[in-house]
Amino acid sequence: MQNEQTWILDRASLTPSKIALIDIQTKRKWSYEELSNESLKWLCYLRNEGIKKGNRVALLAENSIDIFPILFACGLGGFIYVPLNWRLSKRELISILNDSSPSILITDEEFHNLGEEIFKEKLVRIPSDFSVDSPEFNPTPQWQSTDPWLMIYTGGTMGNPKGVLLSFDAVNWNALNTILSWNLSCEDCTVNYMPLFHTGGLNALSIPILMCGGTVVVGNKFDAEEAIRSVNDYQSTISLFVPTMYQSMIETDYFQHASFPTVKVFLSGGAPCPQTIYSHFIKKGLKFKEGYGLTEAGPNNFYIDSDDAAKKPGSVGKSMMFNSIRIKNKNGAICKVGEVGELYIKGRHMFTEYWNNAEETKNAIIDGWLKTGDLAKVDGDGDVFIVGRSKDMIITGGENVYPLEVEQCIVNHPHVREVAVVGIRDEKWGEVVTAFIVSSSNWVCSESEIQNYCREQLGTYKVPKKVLFLDELPKTHVGKIDKKRLKESVN
């Protein structure tokens, strides 16, 4: 019984000897046949452990090719794959595990001890020592394309993590739409240092390229020199990095002197990209463009020709073939050319719901359209520009940070009286988390003390890079903290 669930097996039968995955750190290579076999081994193991359709399978592991067989085994078995952000604090990970209630937690060697601390149920590590004789695929009963495959946690509007449930339809239609709209093929190769617990690492290029028979080269912890060299070493044709990665890569001597003959285009995502980065690639005659997406849709939603991107940096272009976009003003009317409004997205690549959060789901999907909370405008050519966010969310180095969560952490410090957290634009990070603090009168102010306090409770990327101390926070006429004035004070 072949269906949308089993395409990785079909791909392996079409191109069994083609290299599917390469691990930069270990130098291991898997053909599609080997990837298929590894996926079936994990499927058999999980079934033998009593994992059933709809059960959650959580993973806490750094980037490696070992992640993909687990991902596909979950798809083949109808299990819900829950990749965990290993950058989060122990408290945050426990909260997500409590919410998702997985039947098993899989870890790599690096995080196995942590796994034992935070999860008291079934635990297994990669590389595993289990063996499966002659694994075969037995179809999952009562399978539907709308069944969930992935659950990726993203920050909530109030700082609480939300499990974004993505069906087979959502993942596969994003991949198919990307392949057709971006003209991907079996000749393409991507170098991926994006974290594989994010939709960008999984769904932006990795799954689409595996679907069309290309090669995914996986890097572990990002190193600018290693990453930019890998683009040439592995003859990459298309790769995605966030602006902070690009900033580090263009500063290497290798980038300055190397040519990149196999690269069709460099892609940027995760945060608005400074035009200075565009200029470095354009000067070298390299194709460079950026995209827009979010966990709840895609994340691929737009396509722009590289030549057009060079002429109008910052544009993400037009919606892809099988999704639609609208930009609506406050009155609900479609925006005119040049008018800024909120971006709405529609398509079969959209998420199903937020796990255990019907209210947030209802607020996010309006008449079948995803209300993104992001502000955009369209020019006379029909190309879209993302110009800001209607929410307070901060994007720093490709990671989403919600100010209220950081504020709630800092205000618990015994010597803090008031705090406001905002994102301040930064050439390297896109934005930096910045805390403005009014302290108790008898406390000697210390930036490092606040940062160390936050590190004990928050993921490292949420810790303020700047801490500024004021005698009083500015207020609006109704008594609210005036964050606009705070931003203006340092910009």
UniProtKB/TrEMBL annotation:
SUPFAM superfamilies linked to this entry: Acetyl-CoA synthetase-like
Keywords, ordered alphabetically: Ligase
Highest rank taxon of the organism: Bacteria
Acyltransferase as UniProt keyword: no
Domain AMP-binding enzyme C-terminal: 405-480
Residue span, AMP-dependent synthetase/ligase domain: 11-355
Family of the protein in this entry: Belongs to the ATP-dependent AMP-binding enzyme family.
Family matches, as PANTHER family: ACYL-COA SYNTHETASE, MEDIUM-CHAIN ACYL-COA LIGASE ACSF2, MITOCHONDRIAL
Full protein name: AMP-binding protein
Species this chain originates from: Ureibacillus aquaedulcis
